[in-house]
Amino acid sequence: MTKQALKTIIAAILLFSVVDYGIFLPVKALAATSSVRLSSLSPDSEDGFHTYYGYDNDEKFTDVYGKAVNDGIGLQGSSPYATYNVSGKGYSSFQGKVTLDSREVNGDYGKSVVGFYADDRLLYEKSLSKSSGVVNVNLKLPKNAKNFFIVVKELEGSKGKHFIVIQDGTFVKGGSYLSVPYSSYISLLTIGESKSHYYETTGSYSSLQDISGNLITNGFSLSTPYNEGGLGYSTFSIEGNGYNTLETSISLDARYVNGDWGKSVVGIYADDYLLYEKEFTSKTAVQKVKVSIPKGTQHLTLLVNQTDGAKGTQAVTFSQPVVSKTGSSYTSVPYTALPSTIGTKASNGAWETNLYDFGGMIRFSNGTLGSSGLIFESNTDNGDAYTTYNLSDAGVNYFKAKLALDSAYLQGDYGSSTIQLLADNRVLYSKALTRSTGIVNVGVQIPSKTQEFKIVVKQKEGAKGYHNVVLGNAVFQKLPVSAKLSPSRVSVANNYNQNDVVTVKSLAKGDVIKVYNTKGALLATSKPVTSNYTKVAIKQLGTAKGNILVSRTTSGVLESDSVSVPYAAEPVPSPSVAAKQVTIENNKNKNDLITVKSLSKNDVIKVYNSKGSLIATSKPVASNYTKISIKQLGTGKGNVLISRISTSKIESTKTSVAYKAE
């Protein structure tokens, strides 16, 4: 054998070793993986679960094309499912295929949907039909998952229900896990409602669906009675769990959109604070909603207010409603209380729709709906509509709402309406309402120490009755208040014959100062401060001494309480000098001389030229006259202006006195 032949044989052996075993290749070793067949495991809980097709337990499943499935499980029923405990098993993913058994696809077998869950987290959801074929599924699992769920919902057709097949299902160990951003994650259905009304869940009803007709694997529905409408709600207690996010998909149920099914508005509340509100129509697509949960929230309430139509009422579905804690930040909101939380002291012709009670549909002048609020309608026998609230220990300082007339009471003669908001009988807000008023955002600051807050609607009846006046989303709140001014920062100049001036020092940029009289009437408002002080001009405070009230409003917060600041009476002008009291000597080649007689001791005389420029000022008078020497008035004739300043008085008006030529 030649050396060249030997080299060729050795090279071939080495090449075979590398190709067959890879032992000489400098490659990174792959992570070891293993798998467990789903069909080899028994579910920890199940319903409608099958290991064979049919009742004899001897027929294999098929896929939708009729091909036999050698490894699979089956699910059939209204709400079949299978649960597998995966805690501590090291499963990183689930792989397999989803199909329908070919023997139950031709004809009307209704609707089907399958969902795969890791605990409460939806990993994958798919509506199934004959045309969906065989669907490949490859799902990563969160590292700390405890249970794996396969959930099916079916709506029966005229020939029965589909038979769902999970083919070649496998749990894989050793791969990468699903990365999740949250530290806690739970379905509202797992939490369970603490209070509800007209509430149906997928745990009891398999037919809930979105507006496209897709069945929902986990969620709930709110719908009010057929010929009534009204309020449906569900409240969930989340106190102490630190959740900061709520997510869900909201839709009208497709079964109740074609034709007149009335109207629906959805509201989501954190305690009494409105997080989300939207009216849903037959043209509204599925709404994916994600809202921040304020810190300290005790209850989440999801509700719907509905009017009924000729065919009944709509149903609103909430798919995959979950709360989670992501990160450590929270949304901060002011303390907010619905009127019902404060509690009504007395009322007449007033109704409230809140989280749990339906007082009437909150309907604005443009026909849109609100999820909570107040409704007012006068009664011929009982007088004005009103409601009062005791705020002595309520801890609130602000009231806000969306004001409008109800659109159902606009066409025709419904008389006239005026609304007033009062704090201890002091009017904070007043507005006459007409057909063209529209929707007005009303917000009033409630003075500190207010005992009673009252809402009054004064109405005159028209030929068709009274308006309905609506305050939608009406709430009381506690908002931050600007720091109260110290009286020492405020000075008042009560001027004679010119604007009075209020000066306020030690302010922040953007502060706004308001000045009121002692009865609370606004006298003046400053522009936002650009330095550290402001001067506010007021046309006339009055001639006598008195007090004003001064407040500060810092940018972004409410107006402070006012501070009372005294001011002195206007200064009294000195008596003017009569022309006959004055003699003028316009001398030649020596100083001119002005003599003023009939003066009082300590009077001071000022002399001005005819243009108002000061020429001379006397010393305080020692007797009853003074002589003022002026270097030169001029050679020609002319006039000077003479004024007097008496003790404790301001300068008098000027008197014009003529003088002759030199």
Automatic annotation (TrEMBL):
Pfam families: NPCBM. Residues 57-159, 385-476 form the Glycosyl hydrolase family 98 putative carbohydrate-binding module domain. Gene3D superfamilies: NPCBM/NEW2 domain (2.60.120.1060). It comes from the Bacteria. InterPro entries: Galactose-bd-like_sf, Glyco_hyd_98_carb-bd, NPCBM_sf. This is NPCBM/NEW2 domain protein. It comes from Priestia megaterium Q3. The lineage of its organism: Bacteria, Bacillati, Bacillota, Bacilli, Bacillales.
